[in-house]
Sequence to fold (724 residues):
Amino acid sequence: MRRTSTELSDGRELIYFDRDETAQRTDRTDVVDARHLDATATASEIRHDVLLDEWVAIATHRQGRTHLPSADECPLCPSREGRLTEIPAGDYDVVAFENRFPTFATTVGSEVPEDGDGRRPGVGRCEVLCFTSDHETPMSQLPSERIRLVLDAWIDRSAGLAEAPHVEQVFCFENRGEEIGVTLSHPHGQIYGYPFVTPRTRAMAEAARRHRDRTGGDLFADRLKSELADGSRVVASSAHWVALVPFAARWPVEVHLQPREPVPDLPSLDEAARDDFPSIYSTVLRAMDGLYDGPLPYISAWYQAPVRVDRDLVSLHLQLFSIKRSAHKLKFLAGSESGMGAFVNDLSPERIASMLRDVRPR
Amino acid sequence: MRRTSTELSDGRELIYFDRDETAQRTDRTDVVDARHLDATATASEIRHDVLLDEWVAIATHRQGRTHLPSADECPLCPSREGRLTEIPAGDYDVVAFENRFPTFATTVGSEVPEDGDGRRPGVGRCEVLCFTSDHETPMSQLPSERIRLVLDAWIDRSAGLAEAPHVEQVFCFENRGEEIGVTLSHPHGQIYGYPFVTPRTRAMAEAARRHRDRTGGDLFADRLKSELADGSRVVASSAHWVALVPFAARWPVEVHLQPREPVPDLPSLDEAARDDFPSIYSTVLRAMDGLYDGPLPYISAWYQAPVRVDRDLVSLHLQLFSIKRSAHKLKFLAGSESGMGAFVNDLSPERIASMLRDVRPR
Fold:
């Protein structure tokens, strides 16, 4: 893999990840963004919700962001004569760049005082990661070596964002499908560097701490052991990874992909686990697409330990989930879920695991 | 108000709440459900999610529930000759009845062992509350005395469900709008009696406990005091209630309605606060409908103290929120919210408060 960092015309960083170790990104069209974009103002702040003791991002500059452009206006396709996109090059393998409408940015132009009355500037970093230059090929259809390249980019950016000022938590994720509000259909994900430990990670760290205090064991290792012993919710497994529907799945389709050997984050994965990942990820994604015979809207979320704290408590795992509860019905988050935080799942985790195991490869 | 408890043909309880103290619900058509429904089997269970230390309900019998029937098939309208609904009477003011497809039920026919390995039967109770017999009149357009009757029903059912076996938390809420997945458009809400303290309530109790340990004060009273002192997010107020956009609003439209005098739950509201509620509730609902010039999809959620614990920590308040972030755009819960639990709000709380104050009455 070869990594080339360049800069867009408004100063945002763009990084090419090329499979070809000898790839040269020195061509003018690779490195010069001819669009003359004005720098955008990021007026983001984070506010402390006292009733739940959680941080919320208020990012008012995001209201005007691009909304469902047609395929021939896609800003994530390579540039070509007469149509310049976010990626100056005429082709690419995988590319990461700072979001033009970020929730968090390295420089936040705002009058928010540093820690004044539960308000802080929304300092952090948000990047877009394009999985392929091909607008029509989703992650599930990429060949293994290209999924491996995406994994390398996730690893690189996880390490990179962890070093950005004020970042406490790095989150690599993919939203797919208009049903969950995706505004760009080009295969891509996002990477958020939050200036706080997120609520889910904090809850996992606290649960893991209580589990360790009570049993002496590691929550993630013990969970994996008991799921493997039971077996009814295991969807697929390989030398280094296990894919399972969690015992208390909260989404109609939910799969966790967990390394057999617990590690805190993506950069901590060893070479063998990295090599072994593309095949099982692809298997699970294709099974999900086969469930209702068509591309399943999903969220793919990499949970990692926080940057600075509780690194011995939270272990890396991927959560894949969908709001689709049958071929033609969606699960909505209404009062019980969005209000009370109490999830109601109409599908049995064991049944979904069995359906996913039974999907014929596509 | 007159309260009459009856039974549907499958054994579920139905309660009429009539404004007229002398209303007689002894007519055959009021009390006899002529449909001869078979009793449904509720195979609900709750499972412990070890990674987050939270309970999730698995309610597989709910997959077949009624989905968006047309108005002339509405099961919540009064019954008439040749078309029998859930409500046997030819008319009603407000009516509550046990849900035919409940997430939790008093009797759960299942082989789930009591507390076996993080699984427990989904014992509890779920009711539907019809706000009016008129299919076309939403809560925001009901006259004050009818909103007061709905409040009386919420109070009655909150007390009633708190006494049902195993119920630890009562939640009265209304989901409105197809955008948030409402399957029946008749003006109605739901009441859930959960067999556990819900994640949101637990988080509020913990935040309130830490606040009290640190400051000696009451979190809800102190929050209200500081919002009133600031004033920029106050939408409306009356002798007994204040409506405000929270400082760290997580939804594009979010209003909290809090009594000036903290109480743990709806049954604890005194007569003056009860009388004072309909007018401010109606004002806020109409302002929300006026925001984008049409009925706003919303969730209205009453948070109350748990039934048995932390009753001195959690205070009653209503949260009204919408996923609508502009006239034609919705806020989706994607990776950051549904995965990490970290909310990103594109609208300023102060701006929304000001817009709500400025809406002309409709």
Notes: The radius of gyration of chain B is 21 Å. Residues 2-196 of chain B form a domain with the HIT family, subunit A fold (CATH 3.30.428.10).
